[in-house]
Design a protein that fits this description.
The protein is about 30% helix and about 15% strand. The protein is an alpha/beta fold. It has two domains: about 220 residues, FAD/NAD(P)-binding domain (3-Layer(bba) Sandwich); about 150 residues, FAD/NAD(P)-binding domain. Helix 5 crosses helix 6 and helix 6 packs across helix 7. The longest helix is centred in the middle third of the chain and has 23 residues. The chain is globular. The two termini are about 15 Å apart. The chain binds NADP nicotinamide-adenine-dinucleotide phosphate.
C-alpha cells in the first residue's frame, strides 16, 4: 500500500473473491471510487456465479427483472417480468465486459488460503498463485455449495443422477422416467419445465410447499422501446418495485402477525384450493405450517404440471436408492432413468472451504465453530480489512440480493475509506458490537414467520433463523453509514 502508516493517505491493494453478481459489482464500484489496484479471483472460467452454475431447465429468478438489475445498469431488454436464468447470465456477462471487469479477473484460480500476517492478507490460490492484499472482499455467494442428501444407496443408482446446480445437459430427458427429490424453488421450476418432455415424472416430496401463483408476463417490443428511449422509466420501476417488495414482503415476513403476511397466506391458499382439482392430491400438497415460513415458492404453473397424466407426487418417505430407482418406505420401488437432486445448498459455508486465519492466528473455523456470525453481516472481529457481501445474517430469501449487495458495498466503501484517508491501517468490528448484534438479531428472529414451526434453510443448527430479522428499511438505515464506535481501528 502506498502511504504505509496510519496518518498517511493510502491506496490499498484489494482482492475480491468471486466474479458473480457481488464480485462484478465490487469491481465496478471500486473503479468508480478510484481504488483501481484490485484483482478478482474466480475459480471458474466465466463470470456469473449462481447463474453460471444453475442451468437446469426452467431456471429463473422470482425477483422482478427490473429490480434484479444493478441500479447503475438498467436493462431495457428483459423479456419477462421474471427473467429466465440464461438472460440473467447474459446480463452479468454484458455488464462485466462493458465495465472492463473481465480483464481484471484471474479465471480458473480458486483461492484456498487467506492469512492476515504482519498487517496484510496473504492469499494462496490454485496453480501456485500467491498475492498480498491490504483488503479482501469476499463475494463468494450464499446458495453455492450443493447439499447432497444423506440417503442410503445414493451411489448405487444405475442411471444418471445430478444435483440441480450441477445439471448435466448432455442427458436427454425425452421420454425418460425422471425422479426429482425435493420441492423447493429449484424443483418446482424444473417440474414445470420438463413435465412435457419426460416420459414419466415422479416428484418425491418430503414437505409440501406454499406456492404463490404469480404470472410472468412478457414485455412487449413497445415496452422495451419505451425503456430504451427513457432509462428513467426503468429507474422509476426499480425504485417502485423495491418499495413494493419491502412493504409487502420483506417487512411482512419479519412480523409473523402482519396483515400483509395474512394476505400472502390467503393468496397461497386460494391458489391451492382453486388449481388442484383432485381433493386427495390437494390434501397431500397442503402444508401444515404458515406460508413464507419456508422460503416462498413462486410459480404460476406448478399445480397444473403436477396434475398432468404423466406426473406423480410421491409423499411416502424415501427408504433408499437402488440401481433401478428409488424405494420408498412402503416397499415400492419407483423405477427411474434419471434422478435430480433438488435438495438445496449448504448455506452455512460462505467463504469456506477457504482456510481463513485472522489476527494472531485466529482461525475462521474456530470463530465460527458455533455458527457463522458477522457484525451487520459484513465484518468479523479479529479479521481486519476482510469484508463480506451477502455474508451471514443478512437479508436473503425472497429479496433482490443485488440491492442488498449494493447497499452493503456502499457501507464497506466507507470502512475502506478509513484506510484510504490514513485514519487507520486495520479495521474490523469489535467483539462487543458483534455480540450485541448477534444477541439482538436472535431475539428479533423469534418474532419472524421463519420461527413459526417449519424446517428451512433459514434456520441454523439450533433452529434459530439466521437471516436479517428486521425490516428492510432498518437494513437500509444501518447500511447508510457505519457507526465507527463499533469498529476497532489500529
Ligand atoms: P431448498 O429450498 O433448500 O429445497 C430443498 C428441498 O429438498 C426441500 O424440499 C427439502 O425437503 C428436500 N430435501 C432435502 N434433503 C432431502 C432428503 N434427504 N430427502 C428428501 N427430501 C430432501 O433448495 P432449492 O429448491 O434449491 O432452493 C434453494 C434456494 O435457492 C431457494 O429457497 C431460493 O432462495 C433460491 N432459488 C431461487 C429461485 C428463484 O428465484 N426462482 C430458484 C431456485 C432457487 P424439506 O422441505 O422437507 O426440508
Amino acid at each position: 500500500m502506498e502511504g504505509n502508516n496510519a496518518g498517511t493517505p493510502a491506496k490499498p491493494r484489494i482482492a475480491i473473491i468471486g466474479a458473480g453478481m457481488a464480485g462484478i459489482l465490487s469491481a465496478i464500484r471500486l473503479g468508480d471510487a478510484g481504488l483501481d489496484d484490485f484483482v478478482l479471483y474466480e475459480k471458474a472460467d466465466r463470470v456469473g456465479g449462481t447463474w453460471r452454475e444453475n442451468r437446469y431447465p426452467g431456471v429463473g429468478c422470482d425477483v422482478p427483472s427490473h429490480l434484479y438489475s444493478y441500479s447503475f445498469a438498467p436493462n431495457p431488454e428483459w423479456s419477462h417480468y421474471f427473467s429466465p436464468g440464461h438472460e440473467i447470465q447474459a446480463y452479468f456477462e454484458d455488464v462485466s465486459a462493458r465495465h472492463g471487469v473481465d480483464a481484471r479477473v484471474r479465471f480458473g484460480t480458486e483461492v484456498t488460503r487467506l492469512a492476515f500476517e504482519e498487517g496484510y492478507w496473504n492469499l494462496e490460490a490454485s496453480g501456485g498463485v500467491r498475492d498480498r492484499a491490504d483488503v479482501v472482499i469476499a463475494a463468494t455467494g450464499v446458495l453455492h455449495h450443493p447439499s447432497y442428501p444423506d440417503i442410503e444407496g445414493l451411489d448405487s443408482f444405475g442411471g444418471e443422477m445430478f444435483h440441480t446446480a450441477r445439471w448435466d445437459s448432455s442427458v436427454d430427458l425425452e421420454g425418460k422416467r425422471v425422479g426429482i427429490i425435493g420441492t423447493g424453488s429449484s424443483a418446482v421450476q424444473i417440474v414445470s419445465a420438463i413435465v412435457d418432455t419426460a416420459g414419466e415424472l415422479a416428484l418425491f416430496q418430503r414437505t409440501p410447499q406454499w406456492i404463490l401463483g404469480l404470472e410472468n408476463p412478457a414485455y412487449s417490443e413497445e415496452d422495451k422501446e419505451r425503456f430504451r428511449a427513457d432509462p428513467d422509466l426503468m429507474r422509476g420501476l426499480h425504485e417502485s418495485l423495491s418499495q413494493t417488495f419491502a412493504d409487502n414482503f420483506a417487512n411482512a415476513v419479519v412480523d409473523a402477525d402482519s396483515t400483509q403476511l395474512k394476505l400472502i397466506e390467503q393468496l397461497c391458499l386460494v391458489n391451492l384450493e382453486t388449481n388442484v382439482t383432485d381433493p386427495e392430491l390437494r390434501e397431500r400438497l397442503r402444508p401444515d405450517y404458515r406460508a413464507a415460513c419456508k422460503r416462498l415458492v413462486i410459480s404460476p404453473d406448478f399445480y397444473s404440471a403436477i396434475q398432468r397424466p404423466n406426473a406423480r407426487l410421491v409423499t411416502e418417505g424415501i427408504d433408499r436408492i437402488e440401481a433401478a430407482g428409488i424405494r420408498t418406505r412402503d416397499g415400492v420401488l419407483h423405477k427411474v432413468d434419471v434422478i435430480v437432486l433438488a435438495t438445496g445448498f449448504r448455506v452455512d459455508r460462505f467463504m469456506r472451504p477457504i482456510e481463513v486465519t485472522g489476527r494472531n492466528g485466529v482461525r475462521l473455523e474456530d470463530a465460527w465453530a458455533k455458527r457463522p456470525t458477522a457484525y451487520l453481516s459484513i465484518s468479523i472481529p479479529d479479521f481486519p480489512n476482510l469484508f463480506m457481501l451477502n455474508g451471514p445474517n443478512g437479508p436473503v430469501g425472497n429479496f433482490s440480493l443485488i440491492e442488498v449487495a449494493e447497499l452493503q458495498f456502499s457501507y464497506i466503501l466507507r470502512l475502506v475509506d478509513e484506510i484510504v484517508q490514513g485514519r487507520c491501517r486495520e479495521i474490523c468490528a469489535t467483539p462487543e458490537a458483534t455480540e450485541r448484534f448477534d444477541a439482538d438479531r436472535i431475539e428479533a428472529a423469534s418474532r419472524t414467520v421463519w420461527a413459526t414451526g417449519c424446517r428451512s434453510w433459514y434456520l441454523d443448527g439450533d433452529g434459530v433463523p439466521a437471516v436479517w430479522p428486521w425490516s428492510f428499511d432498518r437494513f437500509r438505515e444501518e447500511m447508510s453509514r457505519p457507526d465507527l464506535e463499533d469498529y476497532e481501528r489500529v
